[in-house]
Task: inverse folding
């Protein structure tokens, strides 16, 4: 069920996480922001994060004020799973899931998002 970016941005952090997973599976795409130096980084007290959004519109809602020169970047889900997740883990980067203006959202290691996006088949006995 697709919501408007504005409606989705008003959900709780956990609900936004579920929504991002659902949208990423449906659209086979994740969104982040980039500027001339590459991907945008957000920093919490403990972690460096790359923000991920479920759609271009919700990424654009973040691209204001200090971030006004940033543009949304679409990441095909297959590429995220094959390259980004591993690269981010190697660099000790976390995912800020669907941050909104006053709330960074759920901050998780990339493998957790990967497990939700591409559940491994359970071996059959």
Result:
């Amino acid at each position: 069920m697709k919501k408007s970016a504005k409606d989705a941005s008003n959900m709780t952090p956990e609900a936004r996480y579920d929504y991002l997973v659902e949208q990423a599976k449906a659209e086979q795409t994740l969104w982040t922001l980039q500027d001339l130096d590459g991907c945008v980084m957000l920093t919490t007290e403990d972690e460096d994060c790359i923000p991920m959004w479920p759609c271009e519109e919700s990424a654009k809602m973040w691209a204001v004020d200090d971030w006004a020169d940033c543009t949304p970047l679409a990441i095909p889900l297959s590429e995220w799973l094959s390259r980004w997740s591993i690269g981010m883990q190697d660099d000790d980067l976390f995912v800020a899931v669907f941050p909104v203006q006053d709330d960074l959202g759920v901050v998780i290691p990339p493998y957790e998002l990967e497990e939700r996006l591409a559940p491994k088949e359970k071996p059959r006995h």
